[in-house]
């Protein structure tokens, strides 16, 4: 038996600028962190032959090359997955939450395929082969873990760790609330075509990176500045058509009126999960006011991992 797990993620700044059309021309700066909620892939030998693929559906197959699950089929055809087998995919959250579950799956499939396929670009190219709208950022936290900065142009990437202060802030103040609205991220991302807005998102991410790496700022001031930048990136993001309907806007107002400092929808928007910064003493009030289920989490320092049992 082989077990692979990759962490899900929350992207704070720069989202949308990592898609190929924009990133290849202008570059992209992303600030995101992995969380201790995971996507798991479990592989077992199957002595009776054939393949059984289990996720939200079950497929009985002669080979994974014939799978209806597009990512599994593409991984089997591109990298090879040992057969006959049973392959089981389990996630801590539903798909469509904005936490990067499809990219965590892609990274896990590359890890399962063998060491030569671990580098995250292999996962990027695999997922884009079945979903061209997908950007370049989501695979990085699943691969590296931690709270990091990613600077990218197509085919190249540099990553930087952030001061421990920011992990401490997110672990203490961060809150994920699940809207119960799942959506097709690729469909929403088709609306992310306004170059002027993407320029502003990229410039804000660059500005915030300079703030985060600046020395001599006390932790409380860093928390305040992080909240201000989060509020500004949400102001830009919600201006994109289809990202935030009236019901979601009401949830955001309720959260802020109950004590949240700032927040944003994760991923492409239009549903999924909210990420808020909330003082510990206000958490219960925010959950009650918004009326959504909380997903407890901490920053995960580790990226994708695999075991043989």
| Count of helical stretches | 11
CATH level-two architecture of the largest domain: 2-Layer Sandwich
Biggest pleated sheet: 8 strands, mixed
| CATH class group of the largest domain | Alpha Beta
Number of strands: 12
What gyration radius follows from the Cα positions, in whole Å? 19 Å
The shape, in one word, is globular
Compact summary:
Helices cover 39% and strands 25% of the residues.
List strands and helices in order, with pairings.
Blueprint: E1 2-13, H1 20-26, E2 28-45, E3 51-54, E4 58-61, H2 70-78, E5 85-91, H3 101-113, H4 120-130, H5 139-144, E6 147-153, E7 156-161, H6 164-173, E8 174-178, H7 185-189, H8 195-213, H9 219-237, H10 246-257, E9 262-265, E10 273-277, H11 283-290, E11 293-294, E12 305-308
Parallel strand pairs: 3-5
Antiparallel strand pairs: 1-2, 1-12, 2-5, 2-6, 3-4, 6-7, 8-10, 8-11, 9-10
General description of the model:
- The protein has 309 residues and is an alpha+beta fold.
- It has 2 domains: 2-162, 2-Layer Sandwich (Ribosomal Protein S5, domain 2); 164-294, 2-Layer Sandwich (Alpha-Beta Plaits), CATH 3.30.70.890.
- It has 11 helices and 12 strands.
- The protein has helices spanning 20-26, 70-78, 101-113, 120-130, 139-144, 164-173, 185-189, 195-213, 219-237, 246-257, 283-290; strands at 2-13, 28-45, 51-54, 58-61, 85-91, 147-153, 156-161, 174-178, 262-265, 273-277, 293-294, 305-308.
- Strands 1, 2, 3, 4, 5, 6, 7 and 12 form an 8-stranded mixed sheet that branches. Strands 9-10-8-11 form a 4-stranded antiparallel sheet.
- The longest helix has 19 residues, at 195-213.
- The radius of gyration is 19 Å and the shape is globular.
- The protein starts with a strand and ends with a strand.
